[in-house]
Structures are given as C-alpha cells and as structure tokens.
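Appendix B, Record 12. Input sequence as logged:
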Amino acid sequence: MKKSLMLLFVSLLLCLSGCWNSREVNDLAIAVALGIDKYGDDSYRVSVQVLNPGEVSTSSTSGYDTPVTTYTATGRIIFEALRKLTQQLPNKIYLAHIRMIIIGEEVAREGIYKPIDFLSRDPEMRTDFYVVVSKGNTANEILNVLTSYEKIPANKLFDSLNSSSENWAATGKIRLNELMDDLVKEGIHPILTAIKIIGDPEAGEFTDNVLTTAPDAILSYDGMGAFRANKLVGWLNVDESKGLNYVKGNVKNTVIVSDMDDGQVGIELTDANSEIIPHFTHGDPTIEVKITGVANIADVNTKLDLMTEHIFSELEDKTNNNIKEKITQAIDKAQNEFESDIFGFGDQIHKTDPKNWEKIKNKWSEIFPKIPINVTVDIQLKRAGTIKDPFYQEIPSKESS
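Logged structural output:
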C-alpha cells in the first residue's frame, strides 16, 4: 500500500514539472507585424515590428520613446533575413503574436508563393493574423509609421481592418489559410486589401506624428489588390471593391448615397445576401448573380416627401442601381483588364456542376473574360428612421428683425 502511494506521489510530481520549453517574456522579442519587400533582384528585405514592453505598459517606462521598434534585415530567403535580426536584437524573434503581414507591392507583382510558403511552414506562427498588400509604399514604410489612436501600430491596422470590413465593405479580412485556399483552388484567384500612407512617410516615423491633431502621415486602407494565380495584376478602387464584396457575400453593413432632385439621401444597408447561379446552354456557361437585402433611410438632405409612394419607389430603384453599377464595374475590370476570376465563379461551377466543370476547367482562363454575367439586385427599403420628414421642415420660417 505504501509503495503504491509513493508511486502515485512521484507521478504527480512529474506532472507538476511545468512546460519544459517555456520562455520568459523578457527573453522574447515579440513581433506584432511583419513586412516583406524585394531587395535587389534575388533577395528580400524583411521588416519586423517588435514590442518595447516597458513602453506598452502604462505602469512603467523603460526609457524608449515609442512602444514599438521596427528592425530590418535582408536575405535570399525570408527565414535567413529573420535569423540575421539576431545581430540587432539579443533574442530570437517570437512570431506567435503577429497581427498583420504586409506584402510589398513589388513582391506581390513578382509572386507571393515563396513568402506564403514560409509563413505557412513556421510552426510558431498562428493563422489568425491578416494579410494585406502595400500600395504605392513599401511594407517597411508602412511599418515605420507611428499611430496616435492605438499605441501599437499593428493593433491599429488589425482593428481598422475589422471595422472597415464590417461597416464600409470596401475592404476584406483575409487570413493566411483563406489566402492559401484561394491560391490552390480551381476557379478562383486571390484578393488582398490594399494599404497605403496618406502624407509624408518619413514624417510618420517620428513621435511628433502622434503628438498633433493633424498627423503628417496616416495609414489608410484603399480598395483591394487583384491577383492572377499568385501575382498582383492591378487595383480595384473603393467602388469596385464594394462591387466585388457584394458578389462574394462579404457585405454586412455599408452606406449608399443616392442623388435626388434637390439633394441626397443616405441609405444604410443592414443586410445583404449573394447567390451565384451557373447555367449551361449547349455546353456554354453563363453566370447569374442575385443580390438581395434590407436597407434603412439614414440621412436625408432633401425636401422631398420620402413617404410618397413614387418617391420612395424611386429611391429604392436608385439604391439597387447604385449597387448594380458597382458590381458591373468590378466585373468589367476583372474580365477585361485583369482576366482574373477574383469572384470565384469557376469555383461555384465546380461546386454545383462538377461534370460540366471538368469539361471547361482547362480553358477557364480563356472562358472567364468572355462569359456572360447577369446581375439582378433587389434591396428592400424598410424604414425612414425615427422621423418621416427632414427635421428642418418642421422649423417655422423666421424673418430676421
């Protein structure tokens, strides 16, 4: 009996030995963002935004001026560049807390297979970060801009992308696994949200940039980048990006402005659904896109009586036409300029009609630019807010004395 109790006691002690490979926070260089740029013809420049723990804490200070520092190294492969950073830091870069990956425009145009391969292989990295592509600036310049709203710039970028995709619909939250899926799937090409610097990139590197009400440099998302296979082929502007997201069913909430005879009306789209329906006639494919949803009247800058049936109907038509126009613009650019199925029409054919897909998949790159696509939009306006008519109509006119 005593021998059994002793064995049990020893076993419990072994279970309480802790994590053999644990590391103290002070021994880690915690990276929160990673930027990948081209360096020369055959190398990469990797930029890593690393936390300065003493500055992030509100209760202590370590003497740093900023909560993060961006370190940069070059290498023929990304892994080599990251290890070179140990020449600048006393600790190996810890990648488990990455929030954002910024792929430089030049890298994206050359091809993103190699960077994505590294990111997917590293066992330390989680997959809950977002991937974006820089537009007009290098990834290094993006990571060097300090932000005032959020101490840690990477967190600002992460939160801004969440908010923009939920409430504006001209961006997309693309995680690593989603990007990889679009790279390997048949009948779809990837997209990534574009990010740029508004203002002076060099001024954004200094703390003065966050100590003013009008910063000299601001990070801003700006539409989306379209890829053919793994290469960036062009940009969708804000309206075209919204059109793309309508088709892909990614619009949760956004604003639509309709011009009326004497002003504008702001519409809040609160629910939108997309249905992609492939058809085959004598072996030739066509695509039908149906957009349905619900919207409210949110902002009125007109004296028209919106409760009048024909005016309300006109506003509803304008709302539907506005959405259809954005979708048409995005489709036109994808077919005629990019020749890239960023909507995933081919993937939808593959899912719904695999037999016909087998017949056309090898020619899809030739078929897509010419395939007829019919778009119908049916958004129902449900409410006019808490008042029927504009507030200023209820104010009696006053003559100045």
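The longest helix spans residues 309-338.
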